[in-house]
Amino acid sequence: MRESTSKTQETAFEFAEFTESTAAGDSLGPTEYPEVLRIPIAPEQGKENRRWVIDHYKRIEGTLNNRRRIMYTDAKMINVFTTMCECPYEKRHLKPLNYREYIGNNRSDFIMLYDYAIAFLQFDDLEPFEKHALYRYVCGVDSLLNSAYFTCCLSYEDNWMVLNSCEYICVDPMPMTGDEPWAQHLFASKEDEAKYKYVVVLQSSHF
């Protein structure tokens, strides 16, 4: 009986503390709130450190653009070192896409993207499978976003969709789908037709 009484008293005491705490919170006005600690987004990083991170990624992006400039244009090497390259191509560099010769990213493209990915901050701290996943993301994002960026910079008004390879597809009017009744006479084989649909139709659908 004594044990039961002591437990009841102990519980009642804890409940009283809880009630007092709640009542104190309820006494705040409609626009008053108890102070809540804010979690800093970048702890122990000052403005200069954040600026350094931004400059680092701008620098490796410019380096990737310079490599594309060397690979796909007639740029002179002396011009490569002059300024930060924001766009590797000029409008005069663009050429119509030849879907029969198009292979997507070649080995040089993958090497350029590899160098770009390993320049990410703390890349060496990742596990091998994480590095591989990051590299795959870099390849996918680069393919979509860079094409959109080059298109906006160089040929949006001309309705040309620019690919990473410095080639373009005219999207006004949109290319034929390959399913038109007369389209089969334009292809040398079924494989030729399939490649046209895979390259031209699929790429232009992203516009």
Verbal overview:
- By secondary structure, the protein is mainly α.
- The chain has one domain.
- 53% of the residues lie in helices and 4% in strands.
- It contains six helices and three strands.
- The chain has a three-stranded mixed beta sheet.
- It is globular and about 65 Å long.
- It starts with a helix and ends with a helix.
- Keywords: Receptor, Transcription, Transcription regulation.
- InterPro entries: NHR-like_dom_sf.
What is the element layout, followed by pairings?
Layout: H1 2-26, H2 47-72, H3 77-80, E1 95-96, H4 107-118, H5 128-154, E2 160-162, E3 167-170, H6 190-204
Parallel strand pairs: 1-3
Antiparallel strand pairs: 2-3
Summarize the structure.
The protein is mostly helical. The chain has one domain (48-204). The protein has six helices and three strands; from the N terminus they run αααβααββα.
